[in-house]
């Protein structure tokens, strides 16, 4: 497993491949923002402003690195747990969160942001990601697609189909599996008997790389190399990031029913934010002044999120039928008319 900085913040090996201090410092700044976004979103759930929130607390390094290695012309295909990755890509976090409070749309323009809508069903975004990458290759565009998923998604048929197609047609896609050990309540040991999830790449003819998912430095190096490989036309890479879901699957989940507290406690010292902070403090790159600046920026972002999520959504129920077909079917017209009649009755 690729690792450059250990849990104490010490450099592993000779440090020859370690990213520049400026890059690590910017990565730490992004980690601080991502952690604060997770905390603020969870608070909004408790306040009734969000219906649900799948926190990425503890695995933010995967999300920050995935966004950081992409060019503006590249694409990010996220899951429902990748709010921090989308925000790190530059999308307003308020726009990212509106879907989780019940708005019907994803909140942002995928074409303008080069970020696909968050996918709640497991692995369904992966064939879409491969399609975008394949289309870009056919058109001769310099585009790479970063496709995010969790360990649970590797048990789905869409995962197999996406990797197989991408390998056969050398699609410029990087598959990043955030292995946080659980598919809701199902542990990895009940999902796969493979030596690792990265090893699954062998069956598709795809290089598989296993990396410490709580080591931002290692993630940056591995993902940068995978993106560069895809951009050179050498096809996809399967990256397995070894990480852990510290918080519950969502606020509706009770993790005590399927995992022990001592298991969680073993992972807390491996926190990606604490690890990088220790490293940067030891090297002198992170000063108290910079730490205060990053914290202030995170609080400003949190205040922006609170203000943006404070109002009620203004929704038009008729829009349920507006974008299903370019020419509505008789059934849709009938249903739309029935809803309109019921709404008129309520209003009168």
TrEMBL record:
Record-given protein name: Pyruvate dehydrogenase E1 component alpha subunit
InterPro entries: Alpha-ketoacid_DH_E1_comp (IPR050771), DH_E1 (IPR001017), PdhA/BkdA (IPR017596), THDP-binding (IPR029061)
Dehydrogenase E1 component domain sequence ranges: 30-297
Signal peptide range: none
Superkingdom of origin organism: Bacteria
Cited NCBIfam families: PDH_E1_alph_x
Keyword Transport: no
GO MF, any single term: oxidoreductase activity, acting on the aldehyde or oxo group of donors, disulfide as acceptor
Cofactor: thiamine diphosphate
Record keyword Oxidoreductase present: yes
CDD domains membership: TPP_E1_PDC_ADC_BCADC (cd02000)
An example Gene Ontology biological process: branched-chain amino acid catabolic process
This protein's UniProt keywords: Oxidoreductase, Pyruvate, Thiamine pyrophosphate
């Amino acid at each position: 497993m690729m690792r450059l900085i250990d849990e104490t913040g010490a450099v592993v090996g000779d440090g020859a491949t370690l990213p520049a201090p400026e890059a690590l410092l910017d990565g730490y700044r992004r980690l601080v923002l991502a952690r604060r976004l997770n905390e603020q979103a969870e608070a909004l759930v408790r306040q009734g402003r969000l219906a649900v929130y799948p926190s990425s607390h503890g695995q933010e390094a995967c999300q920050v690195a995935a966004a950081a290695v992409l060019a503006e012309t590249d694409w990010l295909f996220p899951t429902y747990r990748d709010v921090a990755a989308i925000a790190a890509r530059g999308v307003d976090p308020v726009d990212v969160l509106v879907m989780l409070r019940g708005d019907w749309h994803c909140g942002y323009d995928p074409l303008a942001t080069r970020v696909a809508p968050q996918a709640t069903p497991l692995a369904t975004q992966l064939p879409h990601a491969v399609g975008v990458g394949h289309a870009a290759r056919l058109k001769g565009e310099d585009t790479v697609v970063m496709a995010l998923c969790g360990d649970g998604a590797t048990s789905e048929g869409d995962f197999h189909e996406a990797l197989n197609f991408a390998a056969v047609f050398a699609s410029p896609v990087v598959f990043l599996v955030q292995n946080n050990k659980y598919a809701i309540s199902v542990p990895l040991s009940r999902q796969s008997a493979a030596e690792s999830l990265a090893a699954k790449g062998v069956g598709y003819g795809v290089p598989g790389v296993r990396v410490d998912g709580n080591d931002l430095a290692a993630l940056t190096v591995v993902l940068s190399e995978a993106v560069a490989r895809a951009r050179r036309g050498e096809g996809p890479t399967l990256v397995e990031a070894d990480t852990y879901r510290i918080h519950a699957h969502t606020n509706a989940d009770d993790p005590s029913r399927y995992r022990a507290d001592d298991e969680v406690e073993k992972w807390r010292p491996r926190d990606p934010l604490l690890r990088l902070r220790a490293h940067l403090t030891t090297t002198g790159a992170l000063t108290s002044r910079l730490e205060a600046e990053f914290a202030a920026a995170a609080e400003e972002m949190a205040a922006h999120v609170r203000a943006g999520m404070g109002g009620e959504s203004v929704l038009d129920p008729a829009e349920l039928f507006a974008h299903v077909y370019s020419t509505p079917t008789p059934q849709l017209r009938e249903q739309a008319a029935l809803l309109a009649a019921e709404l008129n009755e309520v209003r009168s």
